[in-house]
Design goal:
- Its cofactor is FMN.
- It holds the Pfam family Flavodoxin_1.
- Keywords: Electron transport, Flavoprotein, FMN, Transport.
- Low-potential electron donor to a number of redox enzymes.
- With 152 residues, the chain is α/β, with parallel strands linked by helices.
- It has a single domain, classed as Flavodoxin domain (Rossmann fold, 3-Layer(aba) Sandwich).
- Helix content is 42%, strand content 24%.
- It has 4 helices and 5 strands.
- A 5-stranded parallel β-sheet has the order 2-1-3-4-5, with helices on both faces.
- Helix 1 packs across helix 4 and helix 2 runs parallel beside helix 3.
- The chain binds flavin mononucleotide.
- Flavin mononucleotide (FMN) binds next to helix 1 and strand 4.
- Flavin mononucleotide binds next to helix 1 and strand 4.
Length: 152
Amino acid sequence: MKAAVIYASVTGNTEELAEMIKKYLEMRDIDVVSYPSALFPLSQLQDFQIVAVGTYTWGNGEIPREMRDLYTAFEEYGSKKLTTGVFGTGDSLFPRYCGAVNEFRDMLYVCTNLAVTLKVELTPQKKDDQRCKRFVDSLVKKQRESERNERF
Ligand SMILES: Cc1cc2nc3c(=O)[nH]c(=O)nc-3n(C[C@H](O)[C@H](O)[C@H](O)COP(=O)(O)O)c2cc1C
């Protein structure tokens, strides 16, 4: 099973979360690569069984510019064979808390086999470690279900 963690982060919060999620994917013996979104080769999206998308939120609840091409690539090349999860950090003082996570969630639900979402307030804390583990457990479970359904 091949997985990619693709994220955008300016001040490091979402990157930290991406690293925690990568660690738990590796603990499940999954072949995992991690990319800042600007470096991810979009043509390779279909090479993965699992993609975890990580985004901070900008402006008034908006997707950051460096995540927009990835968003469009999912719309164009996404499939129900691709299991996805979306995670992100935000600041609940803003009216649209983690708005970019919501935007990705709604699109990934339509274009892919969406398993799970995770929102974290600013810098990940110790309690978020277990939330990352559960995020990965949900991704793997959903991917296994989808493989089983394909066989029948
Ligand atoms: C100009 C600006 C606008 C922001 N707008 C939002 C927002 O609408 N909703 C939200 O939840 N967080 C918002 N944030 C907070 C960031 O998403 C948050 O600090 C996040 O953890 C940054 O992630 P990073 O450390 O990975 O770059 C905003 C931050 C800045 C500086």
